[in-house]
Design a protein that fits this description.
Elements (H helix, E strand, L loop, with lengths): L2 H18 L6 E5 L2 E7 L2 H9 L3 H10 L7 H14 L3 E5 L3 H9 L4 E5 L1 H11 L5 E4 L5 H4 L8 E7 L2 E5 L13 E7 L4 E4 L2 E4 L4 E7 L10 H5 L9 E5 L14 H18 L4 E5 L6 H12 L5 E5 H10 L3 H9 L4 H15 L4 E6 L2 E7 L6 H21 L5 H6 L7 H16 L5 H6 L1 E3 L3 E7 L12 H23 L1
Parallel strand pairs: 1-5, 1-12, 2-8, 3-11, 5-6, 12-13, 13-14, 14-15
Antiparallel strand pairs: 2-4, 6-7, 8-11, 9-10, 15-16, 16-18, 17-18
Helix pairs in contact: 1-14, 3-4, 6-18, 9-10, 11-12, 11-13, 12-13, 14-18
The structure holds 8-bromo-adenosine-5'-monophosphate.
C-alpha cells in the first residue's frame, strides 16, 4: 500500500469533512458521564494515609479482602493489597462517603471528564457543531463543571413543567451526589511500611475506586421524555452507558424495565425525525446477560450504527453464539484482521445494522449495509477524519478546536497498520471481494454488504489514550451524517 497516497487522502478528507460539519443541525448525546479524579501517590501521601488509621486494624482489614469500599478502611486495605502485588484493581463504592473522605484527606492532582457520553459531548462541542444536546440523568452541580464552557453545548432542564435547553452548569439537578471515580497511581519501588511489615512496590500500577451509587438509573426523566421535541432539530444521536443497567434492583425492578425504557427513547427520537441516525458506542460489559440484552434488545433493529474495539467485537460475538469466531478475533494471530472483518460482518447481519465501525491500533474497518446513501469514498473520508482526530487527541490529550484537529495530520500513518492491511489484502482478493486496485482505495464489496478499510495514524508516545476510542467513533459518525446532510441539501 502506498503510505504517501494515504497521507494525502487524510488531508483531503479532513478538509472535506470540515466543510460538511456546518450542515449538521445538532447531535444528541446520552447517558453516562462521571468525574475521573487522578492522584499519583508519593511515599509521604501513603504514610499520611496510613496515619489516619490504627495499623493493626488496616492489617485485619487486608485479611478480609474487601470486595467493595464501604468505609475508608476498606479503601486503605485494598490500596495496600494492590501495591503489594503491583496489580491493577477496580473496586466499586456504592456511596459517595469514600469520595468525600478522599477529597478531604488526600485530594487529587487533577480531575477530568469521564464516561463515554461526557467525553463525546465535549469532543463534539469542540468540533464546533451548531448544537450538542447532552443528557445525563445524574447531572450534579460538580459534574456539570466538567462540560466545556461553550454556547453550543446544552442540556435539558425542567422548569415549571417545561423543558428548556441550557448549558449543563445551569441545568444540573440540585442536591444530587456526583459519580467520581478515583484513579490512584503508584510507582515501582515505592517503600511501604505498615504494622511491622515492609515491602517495595514491584511495578507501576493503579487502583481505581469506581463510583456506583445505588440510586443511579439509566433512564430519561419523564418530563424530558414527554417534551423530547424541544431538543430538536437534531440529525443524530450517540447513545452509551447501557452497561450501567443492572440485572436486578432493590425495588424489584429488573434490567427488562430499563431496556424497555431505553428502546422507547430511541423510538421517540426516530418518530420525531425519521431521517435521524442513531449510534450506540459499546464498551466492555462484564455481565453476559446484560451484554446480550443490550445487543439483541436495544441495538438490534432499533439503531443504525455501532462503534466498538476489537475486544468488544469478540465479546459481542461470544454472547451472540459465535464462540469460534470470537476466539479467533481475540487470539489476534496473523489472520486476526480477517476474523475481525468476518466478525464485524456477522454483527451487521445479526443486529440488522446499517453500519459497524471497528477501531484497532493502526487500522479501522467500517462494514456497511448495501444501499447506504453515501459512496464508499465519502465513508472513507469519515474514517480518515476520525483517524486525524484520534492522532490529535493522543498528541495533546485534549482537543480545543478544529484547528488542533488539523495538527493531527502531521502524525504519521502506522507502519504496523499498513502491514496488517497487506496481509488482509490476500484474503480479500483471493475471495474476489475486491480487485488489488480496489483494495488500494480501501474498498471491499461483499455479497450482502460493502466495507471500507483504512490504515490509521498512531502517535508513538501518546500523552493519554483515555477516550480515544470514543473520539474515533464520534468523529466518524458526525462526519458521516454531516456529509449525508450536505449531499441532501445540494441535491
Ligand atoms: P478503546 O479505548 O475503545 O479500546 O479505543 C482505543 C483506540 O484508541 C484504539 O482502537 C486505537 O485505535 C486508538 N489508539 C490507542 Br489505544 N493508542 C493510540 C495512539 N497512540 N495513537 C492513535 N490512536 C491510538
Amino acid at each position: 500500500m502506498d503510505i504517501q497516497e494515504w497521507e494525502q487522502r487524510h488531508t483531503e478528507a479532513f478538509h472535506n469533512v470540515k466543510e460538511a460539519l456546518p450542515y449538521l443541525d445538532g447531535m444528541f448525546v446520552a447517558y453516562n458521564s462521571n468525574i475521573d479524579a487522578i492522584k499519583h501517590l508519593s511515599e509521604e501521601d501513603l504514610s499520611r494515609l496510613i496515619g489516619f488509621f490504627k495499623e493493626a486494624e488496616i492489617q485485619e482489614r487486608v485479611e478480609t479482602y474487601p470486595r467493595e469500599i464501604n468505609e475508608p478502611l476498606d479503601f486503605m486495605a485494598r490500596l495496600l493489597i494492590s501495591m503489594r502485588e503491583g496489580k491493577a484493581a477496580e473496586i466499586p463504592a456504592h456511596t459517595s462517603d469514600t469520595h468525600e473522605w478522599l477529597k478531604e484527606h488526600l485530594g487529587f492532582d487533577y480531575a477530568r471528564m469521564g464516561g463515554q457520553a461526557g467525553i463525546i459531548s465535549n469532543l463534539l462541542s469542540r468540533l464546533e457543531l451548531k448544537k450538542v444536546v447532552a443528557y445525563v440523568p445524574w447531572l450534579s452541580e460538580e459534574q456539570a463543571e466538567y462540560f466545556v464552557a461553550a454556547d453550543n453545548l446544552l442540556h435539558p432542564k425542567i422548569e415549571d413543567g417545561k423543558v428548556i435547553l441550557k448549558h449543563p452548569t445551569e441545568a444540573f439537578k440540585p442536591g444530587i451526589e456526583s459519580k467520581v471515580n478515583w484513579i490512584l497511581e503508584y510507582s515501582k519501588d515505592l517503600e511501604v511500611s505498615c504494622n511491622g511489615s515492609n515491602f517495595k512496590v514491584p511495578r507501576d500500577n493503579r487502583l481505581i475506586i469506581s463510583s456506583r451509587p445505588k440510586w443511579i438509573r439509566l433512564e430519561m426523566d419523564r418530563e424530558v421524555y414527554e417534551h423530547l421535541d424541544t431538543i430538536f432539530p437534531i440529525d443524530g444521536a450517540m447513545l452509551s452507558g447501557y452497561q450501567m443497567i443492572k440485572e436486578e434492583y432493590e425495588d424489584g425492578s429488573t434490567y427488562k424495565d430499563y431496556v424497555e425504557k431505553s428502546v422507547k427513547v430511541i423510538e421517540k427520537l426516530k418518530a420525531l425525525n425519521p431521517e435521524l441516525r442513531i449510534h450506540v458506542e459499546l464498551t466492555s460489559i462484564q455481565d453476559r446477560i446484560i451484554r446480550k440484552a443490550i445487543l439483541t434488545e436495544i441495538v438490534a433493529k432499533h439503531v443504525h450504527s455501532l462503534g466498538l474495539d476489537t475486544v468488544e467485537v469478540a465479546n459481542a460475538l461470544n454472547v451472540l453464539g459465535h464462540e469460534e469466531l470470537s476466539y479467533s478475533v481475540i487470539r489476534k494471530e496473523e489472520n486476526g484482521i480477517t476474523s475481525l472483518y468476518q466478525g464485524a460482518v456477522q454483527l451487521l447481519k445479526d443486529l440488522s445494522l446499517e453500519r459497524v465501525h471497528v477501531h484497532s491500533l493502526g487500522f479501522y474497518i467500517c462494514i456497511l449495509a448495501k444501499g447506504h446513501p453515501l459512496t464508499l469514498k465519502e465513508h472513507r473520508d469519515s474514517l480518515l477524519f476520525s483517524s486525524t482526530l484520534a492522532a490529535a487527541k493522543a498528541v495533546s490529550g485534549e482537543i480545543e478546536n478544529l484547528e488542533e484537529v488539523e495538527a493531527g495530520l502531521k502524525v504519521p500513518i502506522s507502519g504496523k497498520g499498513i502491514e496488517d492491511l497487506e496481509n488482509f489484502k490476500l484474503y480479500c482478493t483471493g475471495r474476489n471481494l475486491c480487485t488489488p486496485d480496489e483494495f488500494e482505495y480501501g474498498y471491499i464489496y461483499g455479497a450482502d454488504h460493502d466495507a471500507v478499510i483504512i490504515p490509521s495514524k498512531v502517535v508513538e508516545k501518546p500523552k493519554a489514550t483515555v477516550g480515544i476510542g470514543d473520539a474515533i467513533s464520534a468523529g466518524a459518525f458526525a462526519a458521516m451524517i454531516a456529509r449525508m446532510k450536505q449531499k441532501q441539501e445540494r441535491e
